[in-house]
Amino acid sequence: MDPRQGYENLKYLQGFGNHFETEALPDALPKGQNNPQKCQYGLITEQLSGSAFTQPRHSNLKSWLYKIRPSASHKPFVKLQTPHHVKNDFMNNDGLNSTPNQTRWKRLTPFQEPTNFRQGLFSIAGAGDPSLKQGIAIYLYSANTSMKNESFFSSDGDFLIVPWEGDHYIKTEFGRLTLKPREIAVIPRGIKFSVDLNENNDQIRGYICEIFKGHFKLPDLGPIGANGLANARDFQIPTAWFEESDEEFIITNKYLGQFFECRKKGSPYDVVGWQGNYYPFKYNLDLFCAMNTVTYDHPDPSIFTVLTAQSDELGVAVCDFVIFPPRWMVSEHTFRPPYYHRNIMTEYMGNISGQYDAKEEGFLPGYGSLHSVMQGHGPDYDSLSKWTNEELKPIKYPYANLAFMFETSYMLKTTHSAMSDGQLKLDHDYYKCWEKLENNKLKQ
Asked: What digits encode the pLDDT tens for the residues 290-310?
């Protein structure tokens, strides 16, 4: 069956952080209470909590699900052999590298054997440990087959998915959504989902940031005012959808960085109605309302933050998701690409499409780079030469150009798999993009 069937005219709920209610059958949601003695259609009531019961109301996250079968109904979980290219415990050095060097990777080579989304996760770097609910993990993924009768969820953290290749058809407990390059999706901790491919796609590929602490939210706008950047109204949330089946499903749980599998009768996507404020969502990056200088100097990249997950220290992020979108550049007497920089934060960059203005060659879609805490980075020699001599007219960066950054306060360790020149190739000449600058001399 074509996995696209039923996705043609999906409707979404609109708005970030709202309390929604949606039902796939009339009166599936109870009136005036959450947990009635009996539900319509013989449904089971189940609450999914994304925060502690006692958190303040503004940060309290939960949804009530009205399901055909409870989530507790399944065979016992069995531990699987965790793939060598997946790593989540970054508190020791087993299978990990520590390097201050600027690092760049080429595209993840597609898997040759049939590989679905869950099987195609490939760890790049991270910090912390999900058992402490502290830290972050960065992955690439590559898949060439759909998740037939299989579902996946992470107990460890929230997934921010950034595709750069292929159409994704995603089933979740809360409904269905489509995802393609230039869009992102967030699947919060504990929510089951499956990723299917278009029959015409050979593969899908992309990037993932998993946060072990907190949840993604919109950044505060401060003196920008009430509007701009990613507007809350543009975030899309799936509407209730369910499938009733007696077939056996496999559910894979990532728990403390290890994979466990159970089998259950019937689809996990049996939620006939739900209401709450804890759910998956998607966003089209083309709708980002970029702010920029209209006088001089290059603003800090935080001005392009789409989503943030904050640490316990005010203004310091577990992860800021930042994009470098198409935009007008009009600054006068200014070096327009990003300035040279050393930073208290760690920056992992990826490219969704086109060119990145600070690295116009050698940083293709699917590539990635890591610039660690207090390590110098910035435009390559050719970009410096071009933009220090360019006539400064108003220009608009092409629509095709879209890069992004996961910026985190953590100091990241890279995995052996990411550094071993196996399925993922290092760019061993990356440092040479600044090599000619060693000859730069004081001009009298």
From this structure: 999 999 998 898 999 999 999
